[in-house]
Description:
By secondary structure, this protein is α+β, with helices and mostly antiparallel strands. It contains 4 helices and 8 strands. Strands 1-3-2-8-5-7-6-4 form an 8-stranded antiparallel barrel. InterPro entries: Dimeric_a/b-barrel (IPR011008), NIPSNAP (IPR012577), NipSnap_domain (IPR051557).
Amino acid sequence: MLRYNLTYITVPPTGMQKALSGLQAWLETSPLKGKFLACWTSEIGELSRILLVHGYDVIADIPRDRETVIYSDNPFGIGDLIVSMETDAYTPLNGLPEIIAGEMGPVFEVRTYKLKPGGLTPTLDAWTKAVGPRSAYSKLLSFMYAVGGEVPRIVHIWPYKSFDERFAIRAKTVAEKVWPPAGAPPHLAAMRSEIFLPASFSPVR
């Protein structure tokens, strides 16, 4: 099973293009063991953010890669542009296909939920039942849950062809009571939704 590491990098409002250029050059000779899957930039939500997604066959490689970045004097080749950075490891829901390179968006909605204590298992159960019916409306890129950090968290990522498609499909699934997953909302403590667009060099775009 492929695991994932998600890294959010915040850069100055006027530094995005320079940051992407530096990131692209760094990734071409990346010392990381993880497979580079995506580089997206925030369009709606918290702005000036870059999301990097790496996939791992060996979960022990995730903390090793983190150490590589943390101890670097120039993280990701753009250390002078990084305002803040957060990273965490995730395990995908059983039975989901792995994230692979290709054209899937170009609009990606990334939804992050913090869960109440004890809420992870019932949330995973609810999602296991709901993913099939919901995926009949639009493709789910991935659903994953954090394996570190201070509180249980889940992330689900949905690709769409446009903003209009996203709004139309979400409205339809809610109206037809396909979404949200039955039994999941009571376990949610906080929710965040962001829209990302792919960088020109992102494998998943």
